[in-house]
TrEMBL record:
Protein name: Cyclic pyranopterin monophosphate synthase
One function term, GO molecular function aspect: cyclic pyranopterin monophosphate synthase activity
Active-site residues from the entry: D127
Pathways per UniProt: Cofactor biosynthesis; molybdopterin biosynthesis
EC number, UniProt record: 4.6.1.17
Organism encoding this protein: Anaeroselena agilis
Annotated gene: moaC
Length: 158
């Protein structure tokens, strides 16, 4: 296994994917944001002054996936064919789970776009709720699965 984002001199580079063939690619990432039970109740009821927290976070996650190449220096700009953000409110854990599925047909994968989508959605929840709960914790942002490309399929073991 070798790191591909370094040139012969050990300096950073963007990998040249021009010789690779197109394939259908998909990545799924997850994470969660824990908060006080009272904050979670405000999110569920839509009573925060900034508005519909999960609705705004969903749009932010989609925008984040689309802007990944502008945020992560060695990422390629990709034409994404699908982005889906889902939320799971967990009252027992006082958290909101976030899952992002990103798809494209192209020369490089969409793992970073899925991870960015989850991260931006979680940061948006934080931003919209910070007036009532500065102690929220964003955690467990991770790649769950990916498919397509030369390296094939990956599924995280539970």
């Amino acid at each position: 296994m070798e790191l591909t984002h370094f040139n012969e001199a050990g300096r950073a580079r963007m990998v040249d994917v021009s010789g690779k063939g197109d394939s259908v690619r998909e990545a799924v990432a997850e994470g969660k944001i824990r908060m006080l039970p009272a904050t979670l109740e405000l999110v569920k009821q839509g009573l925060l002054s900034k508005g519909d927290v999960l609705g705004v976070a969903q749009v932010a996650g989609i925008m984040g996936a689309k802007a990944t190449w502008q945020l992560i220096p060695m990422c390629h700009p990709l034409l994404l064919s699908g982005i889906n953000i889902e939320f799971n409110v967990d009252e027992a854990d006082s958290s909101v789970g976030i899952a992002a599925t990103v798809r494209t047909t192209g020369k490089t994968g969409v793992e970073m776009e899925a991870l960015t989508a989850v991260s931006v959605a979680a940061l948006t929840v934080y931003d919209m709720c910070k007036a009532v709960d500065k102690g929220m914790v964003i955690e467990y942002v991770r790649l769950v699965a990916k498919s397509g490309g030369k390296s094939g399929t990956y599924r995280r073991e539970s």
